[in-house]
Amino acid sequence: MSVNGETSSITGFDASDHQPAFIFTPSAIEGAPERPAKRRRVGRTSAPDPTKHAQAFRFERLLNGLEDTECVGLREELFKRHWAKTEERIQSILGESNEDTLTKVTSFVQDVAPTEGSGIVPTGFIVTGPNIASQGLLFEQLSERLKTEVNGPVVTLRSGDAANLKAALKQLIRDATNQRAVNEDEGEGFFERDGRKLLNYDLEILHGFVKLHGSKRAIVAFQDSEAFDPGLLGDLIALFSSWMNRIPFVLLFGIATSIDLFRERLPRAATKCLFGAQFDVEQTSSVFESVFLKVIAGSEAPLRLGPALVSSLIERQHNHVQSIQAFISALKYAYMCHFYANPLSVLSDNERDSKSLLKLLQSEHLEAIRMLPSFIKLVENSVEKHEVTLARGLLEDDKVLLREVEKALDSATQRVITILRTMHVLSSAATGPVEKIDLYVRAFKGSLSDSDTVRAVLDSIKRMAPDALIAFIGRITKAVENGSPELDLEGWLGEETEFLKEITDIQGEVTSLVEEAVETGKPVRSQYAIHSQGLRTTVIAQKVQLSYEKSTLSKQDIKYTALIDRMSNLLKEYFTFEHPQDLFLNEVWLYDSLSPYKEVFTPGSRLAIEQSLSAPYHYLPGCKDTGDAFSSSKPATAILYQMYLESGSLINVSDIWTAFFSIVGGEESEGYDERTALMLFYRGLADLKLLGMVKPSRKKVDHLAKSVWKGL
Fold first, then answer.
1. What value does the mean pLDDT of the chain take?
2. Stretch (H or E) spanning 617
3. DSSP secondary structure code for residue 372 in this structure
4. Within 13 A of 354's CA, how many CA atoms are on the CB side?
5. Which residue of 324, 548, 708, 710 pairs with 533 in a disulfide if CB–CB is 3.0 to 4.6 A?
6. Do residues 150 and 216 make contact, with C-beta atoms less than 8 angstroms apart?
């Protein structure tokens, strides 16, 4: 071939054609020198000031910016203080929930005896259930417990740490050898062998470490074992089995499904090497109820959640997530919203008395109080009771309002405790299991007296025999005397004198009736437990007539029926109390706003994306609202999105490129050149494709198919 032929054959060849990706170089730096300019020496930058960083995220001043700085600081302090105590209690509950499992697993590891020469690896299968997020806390607690009570290294492996066999062994050996400090002479003993340095994934290193420290066990825990590759697990188990005569391995597997499903995933040769026991972790539902009763419903809870928010949290917990950590995050967000957005939350400081809290209030605080629904309810009740002077004073006189605020703050805690005590008595009086979370929702909704639980208790009383009624009253008395540890309620036997006197009198009278019945030999029954009418048959002139007659009741039966009615009315009155959301200033200690929770924990991602593409100036400070939907100041993706909205089901790429370049390009200095505009065009189309709005069309090669319509 001639030289001219060779030259012509490579005409049009670009040196970048062989590259897998196109490298874009902006025109502004095309003529830049190859050698970078020498950088100027600058002084050492000072370390960032943590106080300035903290000040940048302080709470905002509310009440139209008129809130005093002391109140702003107090709200932030209350949030941090209350949440720190709440989080501490949550961690304590989670720790106690795993205590039984930790004890059993630790005992298994200590007592299990590896069989020499058999290659069988002692194994513990920890069935955690579907709550995978709780596995981290469980295995962290298990690692700490085993390190203190078992002589040997404890290593926890996760699926992300073990991409292959070498990576898993490296992680295992590194974590095991770093658990005890060794000097250089000791360290060389197990990192080298016969003058040669061992590879960092050689189990001979772990063997030397175990031999040096006289370890009785080498515990390897697989936290999310079902996320590991089955082949990798099989190789690790086979390798551990071959080293059992030198390293006393004990394996622990965290299983979310079941042992049978986990065993089916493993190679058969690996399952033959395992022998051990199963440990069941306490289920999420019981742990969730314990956390709820202590942290939200407990008497020491600094903030109550309202029924609407609790119902939404419970629905999300049961239907969408199974993680305790997700519930804790939602609870923390509720705390943050309450103290961040409510200027009256300063009144929830339980370390100050009501008089010192009133000194913090400004005139703007009083104006905010007069806008509360509970204040409106207070004024309406005053008018209904013909206390017009008080109602006028609440509206016009700040001193009268401050007196009512002080009364409300002083009585708030006692009123909440009264509600919790009623819940505890009701759950103790119920004959069957009771959903205590549902009781909380109904109690703070003000509908506890009309609930199915109360009706079931009252109906069961009418059908009770005397002995059952005596035992029933005994349960109520015991509940009042002992209180409720799960609600942090102490016994209040000395405070319920009137109620206890009434039920004790009923119990005594029923006992007397039972003693009389034993003497006479006739049982005592109420009119609700026997048929009040009997069927009577009469034959007159060869005709049969049926009639009803009332059953006769003895004096003891009539007296017992009266006692039943008296007990029923007494309990019905006891289970009735004022609506918590009608209490004055309940907004200080009760948070029941749904909108912030729904916006954060149930976000509308598609709506947010469409809004950001339609109006990017709401999100980007450099983008201005010019009133033109096709303004060149908008990002390329937003411009293409507007064209996308106005197009049909098929989009001609050539036409949309021409329209796009006419907007962002041009001969003016502000427009982009064709090369830069093409790069922006491709990037914008890639964004739309990533969002699932367009896809290649099968009908026409040079067209894109529209896959999403706005608002549908």
1. 83
2. none
3. S
4. 14
5. 548
6. yes
Alpha-carbon distance of 219 to 312, in angstroms, equals 42
Please tell me the class of the 99-281 domain: alpha beta
Residue among 525, 528, 593, 578 nearest 556 (CA): 525
pLDDT of 96 > 70? The answer is yes
What is the DSSP secondary-structure string of 474-485? HHHHHHHHH-BG
Please name the fold of domain 605-706: Arc Repressor Mutant, subunit A (1.10.10)
- Would you say 83 and 345 are in contact if contact means Cβ atoms under 8 Å apart? no
Of the pLDDT bands very low, low, confident and very high (cuts 50, 70, 90), residue 13 is: very low
- pLDDT per position as a tens digit, 397-436: 999 999 999 999 999 999 999 999 999 999 999 888 889 9
Angle at 529 between CA 524 and CA 534, to 5 degrees: 100
User: Cα angle at 288 between 285 and 293, to 5 degrees?
Assistant: 125
Strand pairing class (590-591; 304-305): parallel
> Which residue is associated with the tokens 């020198």?
33
Distances (CA, A) of 379 to 347, 375, 458, 540, 632: 21, 6, 35, 71, 57
Cα(first)–Cα(last) distance of the chain, in Å?
64
Handedness of CA 408, 413, 414, 418 (dihedral sign): positive
Query: Cα(552)–Cα(532) distance, rounded to whole angstroms?
Result: 8
List pLDDT tens digits, range 428-475.
Answer: 998 888 899 999 999 999 889 888 999 999 999 988 889 999 999 999
CA 445 to each of CA 316, 374, 484, 526, 577: distance values in angstroms, whole numbers, following the listed order: 19, 14, 22, 35, 11
Compute the distance between CA of residue 141 and CA of residue 343 in angstroms, rounded to an integer.
Answer: 40
417 contact partners, CB below 8 Å, separation of at least 6: 299, 489
pLDDT in tens, 109-156: 998 877 666 788 999 999 987 766 677 888 888 999 999 998 889 999
* Single-letter amino acid, residue 129: G
Cα distances from 169 to residues 224, 233, 275, 514, 609, in angstroms, run 17, 12, 22, 76, 44
Do strands 274-280 and 533-540 pair parallel, antiparallel, or not at all (unpaired)? Answer: unpaired
Residue 678's identity, in one-letter code, is L
